[in-house]
Amino acid sequence: MTFASASRAFPALETDLKRVREILGLAGVPGRSDLAALTREPPGGNRRLIRPTLALLSYYLLAGPERAADVRAVKAAAAVELLHMASLYHDDVIDDARQRRGRPSANSVWGERLAVLAGDLLFVSGSRLLAELGRSEALAVAETVQRTCSGMIAETADRFLLSRTEDAYLEVTGAKTAELLSVACRLGAMQAGRGPEAEEALARFGWHTGMAYQVRDDILDLTATSGELGKPANSDIPEGVYTLPVIKALAREPALARLLRRGVTAADAERARRLVLSCGAVDEARTVADAHMETALRQLDGLGDPRSREGLADYVRSIMSSAGHAGPALVTAPPPAPPPSPAQVDVRARVQERLDAWLLDTGLAATPEEARHPRWHGIASATALMWPGADAEQLETLARWMLVCIVLDDLFDEPGLADPGEVVRLRNRLAPLIRGLDDTPPTGGAVATALAQSWERIRLTQPPSWRTRALDHLLEWLEAAEREACHRLSGFVPGLRDQVPLRLGSAGVPVFLDSFEMTYGTELESSVRDHPLVRRLLDLGTATVLAENDLRTLDQDEAAGAPYNLVRVLRHATGCTRQEAIDEVTRRVEDGYAQVDAILTSGPAILWPAGGGADSVPAIGLLRIVRERLPGWRAIHDVDRYSRSSTGSGTYLARLRRELLLDPVETGAAR
């Protein structure tokens, strides 16, 4: 029975489920529209509302299929769905699941902390509804939740346990899955007021339905594809959760036990799956599921009228046929960066030619060979990736500013800078140059001239509020660069807790975001900049990009004594081997980009209903722009600070540093 045929058998179902959804929509953070989607958007996309539907159908079966549900029945249906959603949020965090039913999980999009807290809020919201219904309903659900939690604990404690028995599996399955479907049917029946015998019969019906559903789901984990499941297939075996087919196969295939262990490889997990499939264990498990389904249907005998009984039976059969089938999958891979058109190539070439001349004119480069240093040459192409569609004037403005920022950062990494006192003097010399940019542009010296000329272009395009914030960010970056240089010279390596804030500071993330705003076309509103999803995207994306860069430059960082490289910090903090640290950072990078993509993929759909108006639109536009430009931004890593040229990468930096540390009058005279 599809939903449409269920609606024909129970005419009030569609309207009553709409009433349920209205109650579900009230479970949120008061006064925070930006967080509305956190609890309103379920893990895995559109709600199937199986448990509320079972509650309502149980009510109709006893109260009559033609009448709309009593408000108490609607509240009961909503309560059980809130409890179910809470368990999904918590389960996905515990399992570190990144997908549910083919879509990003809540913890992938919002992060673990918000996902756990949202699950708590949903649980309390459901409990409040039950308290409004009365002591009997609240007590029935409390007992169910107690058994469910006990079952989850038992299953977790039994991970990788080769001696796990069928009875242990069935007991856990009854607790963690069947109990919630059972209580859904019980709650619906309680509101019809037909007595404890009918309530018990429907509770047994729900319990056996849940048993059949879970056994079938465990079978699908072994037999279905990832696309059909909406999550990775064959995930139970690597996690050490030995389900009924595996337990039965262990009794038949001695070789299987040798494959089942902690840290099982993907190849071993696949071999184990094939052993389970080939020995007949799946067919035996399917027989168990079918037996529970038959037992469930027998519980309906004598309840309601024949048409209603058949309608309810058809609905649960449809649940079984659709179990494990994911909803429509979202496209998760970012679109590849399109190759530049001939016109774009021509613009980039002209801008690079202008930049080369500007480097010589300001004195940043003393010779044409220095101007062609890999760190500088090609910056036009890098900025074009950040700003698709920009004209030559726009690209040159952004490229000049990025070049100046690169020089300022590189000055503190220059190999010849070996005196901490000189590091401090360098920052003290640069700070007043930057502070005066918006009032009295600095003169004298290559760096001062380049700062003044690049900022003069920015003054023509960016509002005063942006300029004030951008200069403050640049000064903060200088402080972080000074700190990192001193840490490098002293041999200091931070702990894991401090690595991220120190790395973010020395990377100049706010400066990069200011540069992005130049390409965005307007200053970001605080409601967009401060939106929880946007902030999570920036934090997660930045940490991932920096970790990826740490892998790319590890050899050079180790030789230079770079203090904040994540691989070095992990080795220092944990005592692990170099390869173990590399493997861990690689895993973090892969997982980080997967979560970034989850935010970029799901963000627009989540944000659109969350604000309910214009406030959400800029954030949607921002996420879409980031998604479009992500491939280009990642490619900017090709311009790394360890590039070498025929003249040597330290030549111009040593010259510029000496020039900066001269008295300003001497510098002006020298020029």
UniProtKB/TrEMBL annotation:
Gene3D superfamilies: Farnesyl Diphosphate Synthase (1.10.600.10). CDD domains: Trans_IPPS_HT. This is Polyprenyl synthetase family protein. Belongs to the FPP/GGPP synthase family. The keyword Repressor does not apply. Residues 333-342 have a biased composition (Pro residues). The keyword Metal-binding applies. Signal peptide: none annotated. Keywords: Magnesium, Metal-binding, Transferase. It comes from Microtetraspora fusca. PANTHER family: ALL TRANS-POLYPRENYL-DIPHOSPHATE SYNTHASE PDSS1 (PTHR12001:SF69), GERANYLGERANYL PYROPHOSPHATE SYNTHASE (PTHR12001). Its cofactor is Mg(2+). Residues 326-345 are annotated as: Disordered.
